[in-house]
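Dear Dr. L.,

I hope this message finds you well. Following up on our conversation about the binding site, I have prepared a predicted three-dimensional model of the protein together with S-adenosylmethionine. For your records, I am including the exact sequence and ligand specification that went into the calculation, followed by the structure tokens. Please feel free to forward this to your student if that is useful.
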Amino acid sequence: MNNYFYAEDDAEIYDDTAELTQPEYLAIHRVAAQLLHRGFAAWPHESAGTQSVPPNHGNGPLVFDIGCGTGMEALALLRLSPQATIIAFDKSEHMLSILSRKIHEAGGIEEGRLKRVVGDILDPRWTGEALRNLAPYARPFDAVISGFLIHHFSSKQRADLYRRVFESLSVGGVFVNIDLFDFQSPTLSQYAEEVGEDWVSQQLSCNADPAYQPVIQRLSAQVGTLRTKWLQHLREENVPAPIEPTEASVAPAAQGNAIRSNSQMLIDVGFIEVGCPYRFWQAGVLWAKR
Ligand SMILES: C[S@@+](CC[C@H](N)C(=O)[O-])C[C@H]1O[C@@H](n2cnc3c(N)ncnc32)[C@H](O)[C@@H]1O
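The resulting structure of the complex is given below.
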């Protein structure tokens, strides 16, 4: 299987292409890191079972990163929260090996603060309990984060994942989903899709913004093929759903088939607060508190 959300073949150029293919990639990640950082600053970390955990063995914030890739969110968090431990989960061994390389190159990050797990989050054996068992002392997570993954999943897969995420979190824990979303309005959804495609068409070309020219030169001969593949990916493999409820999705008769909104799904599985602190066309940060 080779597509852009299972980036095995293009793992080595993932970091180079992330900004070229996703407008505001860095800003979106910054908001997600700020959300977690602020949450951790306020928490006494008294989730069940924590008292029995000895110091320096995971009694700082515990974060589960689904589809961690080459470590954009994991590395930012490890730097921001010196006590944080991260379980970095990805289907691609290659992406995880790049994350390891980056941790090593960055230096100063204690090995034990990052645990790498190769796995497919769609595999039903990853129940909430199985996910928690990845943590030291099977402690529930203080936060679950995911970046640019879940918009590839069907409605059913998404609902099921949200339930397992909820089950893996401590009470008061948060889920932060950096992702692509539709709007309530089909017109706005269409505009957002076009803005995304325009961005890829421009940045993966000789008309790229000056800041990206060095990367374009590095990618040189691959740029045309990458542009074609990315545009195809955006059109054929992305299935974003709106954040806000849509009329169609709440109408009882439509419930079987309609795309259920992300906020509805999160509330359905038990989250008590849901919000979207950042939005740039399709991309956004969805936050939910257990
Ligand atoms: C677009 S990348 C995002 C990487 C990183 N989170 C970021 O924001 O830059 C998506 C990642 O999800 C991983 N992935 C795709 N499907 C997955 C699955 N079913 N289970 C776990 N990881 C998956 C891919 O291997 C890839 O590393």
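In brief: Residues 186-236 form one domain.

With kind regards,
A. P.
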